[in-house]
Automatic annotation (TrEMBL), chain A:
PROSITE patterns: MRP (PS01215). GO terms for molecular function: 4 iron, 4 sulfur cluster binding; ATP binding; ATP-dependent FeS chaperone activity; metal ion binding. Heterotetramer of 2 NUBP1 and 2 NUBP2 chains. Interacts with KIFC1. Interacts with NUBP1. The gene is Nubp2. It comes from Baryphthengus martii (Rufous motmot). Component of the cytosolic iron-sulfur (Fe/S) protein assembly (CIA) machinery. Required for maturation of extramitochondrial Fe-S proteins. The NUBP1-NUBP2 heterotetramer forms a Fe-S scaffold complex, mediating the de novo assembly of an Fe-S cluster and its transfer to target apoproteins. Negatively regulates cilium formation and structure. This is NUBP2 factor. CDD domains: Mrp_NBP35.
Automatic annotation (TrEMBL), chain B:
One of its GO terms (molecular function) is 4 iron, 4 sulfur cluster binding. Pfam families: ParA. The keyword ATP-binding applies. The lineage of its organism: Eukaryota, Metazoa, Chordata, Craniata, Vertebrata. The gene is Nubp1. This is NUBP1 factor.
Amino acid sequence: FLPERSNLTGVRHILLVLSGKGGVGKSTISTELALSLRHSGKKVGILDVDLCGPSIPRMFRVQDNDVHQCDSGWVPVFVDQDKSISLMSIGFLLEKPDDAVVWRGPKKNALIKQFVADVAWGDLDFLIVDTPPGTSDEHISTVEALRPYKPLGAVLVTTPQAVSVGDVRRELTFCKKMGLRVLGIVENMSGFVCPHCSECTNIFSKGGGEELAKHAGVPFLGCVPLDPQLSQSLEEGRDFIQEFPKSSAFPALTHIAQQILDGTSQRSS
Amino acid sequence: QVALLDVDICGPSIPKMMGLEGEQVHQSGSGWSPVYVEENLGVMSVGFLLSSPDDAVIWRGPKKNGLIKQFLRDVDWGEIDYLIVDTPPGTSDEHLSIVQYLSAAHIDGAVIITTPQEVSLQDVRKEINFCHKVKLPIIGVVENMSGFICPKCKNESHIFPPTTGGAEKMCQNLNVSLLGKVPLDPQIGKSCDKGQSFLSEVPESPATASYRSIIQRIEEYCHQHHFPEEKMI
């Protein structure tokens, strides 16, 4: 049952960013994907369903913003005058930034249903859904709530080492069981080039993400290296894609966005 | 005598890190048997209950809570000096349940892990607030991935920059102990992937020294809090 007119009617493509593992860079990839797509002229929204650890507002330097209501629901927070990127996160609803959201599953599920149905996104080319690590309440509820709107699929993020890949294998099973297409795997934090001497060190090993993609028969979207300028950009809520085109993570991040765009134009034709 | 309980139900990493992948749990009259790494180190994880590395545990909160209860009630740990509980990220079912179910026993406290950057600290402040809310004492904070020394030129890079003062500033502001900082070392990830003890494999690493110092501080904290009368000496 697809409602005739809903807050997601104007959204052309919905994609989820998932990982089995915490701390691998889902929010980073969600943010940079949004910035790259914006750079290609697209209108993008990010729905942050990480209720315990909402990272998205700070990554766009709008962590102090409030959310307002309109007739059709909640107005998403625009990151700048351009209005080409809009966000929704529990981060905007907290009274104090350090307030812990200590909720069990049922309460989390209720808010996620609201987030999916009640944000007045308007017209978007892409809605990116950033998730917490795991395969539990948030993930089940989000996928079920989004099902009528036929999401494009999921991007899975891992770091190269086996301990991370091990959890992402389970996330692949989650996608299969939930009928969610896997758009591809990103191997994040893949190598570090020393800015002083250019020596490359594989701090978190290398290759695990690519191997997993091959083993699972899903597209490999690329390796993103560790890049202190990227970390710094996220800390300051800056537009890395706009400001650091020569930085080491730039080619990989824009390549991921390009593959997503290519995927959508293929599907339309 | 140490017990390690992994309550990350969706992403159980401990079996692999301990070199116990593929092991299964055995039942006996006295309950579930932990899987032993060594005679004095027993481990329990949902990982041991899964038959394939692709098996996903797609459970909502109540079912996860049920398994955590079973882990605490049915595992026959024997007499142990330390029960270490590894948790998933967040402040939700697993965290509430483990604190609730262990409330009759005495929890010495929590060790909270962060990386140096504000994106991590902002979540860790929430975790500290969680501990206050549920009256869980905080042993201290560990700043992980704290700097990287290039093996070639020996220059330090702040891959995860402490733009707001890192764990040190946060701990000062919130009046909690900073137990130590652990630098990035590619050998750590390698050891974990191979299921080997990094401390034994790479004893000369600066990270090993950090870990050992942090562990010593944790032991001192536990000892002081268990035997307060010894402080009088």
